[in-house]
Structures are given as C-alpha cells and as structure tokens.
Amino acid sequence: MSNAGGGRNEVDPRFVSLYSVYNMSFPTKAVLFHVYTSISTAHLAPFVEQIRQLVTPLTNSSLELFDTSINELAPTPSKFHYIFNMRDLSRVYCGLCQT
Hints:
Largest sheet: none
Mean pLDDT: 87
Number of helices: 5
Radius of gyration: 21 Å
Order of helices and strands: HHHHH
C-alpha cells in the first residue's frame, strides 16, 4: 500500500494478506449461447414441437439484442445508468420462464 496522506491510510499487511484477487473474463458468445439454449430447451420441453423449434432463434435474437444494447447504448456522463451486464440478460430469460 502507499504511504498515509492525501486521504489514504496505511493498511496493515497482515490484514491485506487475508484477501485474494480473482479475475473472471466475460464468457464467449458460444458459452452464452449454450447456457441460455439449455435453459430454454429445458423449460420448453413439455410444449409442442412448433414452440420448441423457437429456442435457437429466440436465443440468437436475445444475444444479438444484448450485444447491440452494450455497443450502442454505452454509458456517458449524462446517461450513466446505461450499464448492461449478464444480469439483465438473465432477467429476460427469467421472465420467459415465468410465462
């Protein structure tokens, strides 16, 4: 840690040794497709074949919408609430499973 001053306080090294840093990269499109296709397939299993055939187009369109919203609606100082993550995509599938 750095020296105390300028609003910084020194942290005891014994305290810092109790923490670990983990890094997890964002999943690839193939992984996201597999995860959300599996969720949709399991949920739509009791439905008729015409509905079950919509799993792949539904997953593709939701992932495309998610990518578009991340790329086109980037957060700015005036629109700082434009933060999209996987939780938003999971909420879409949670809502689909409740229908």
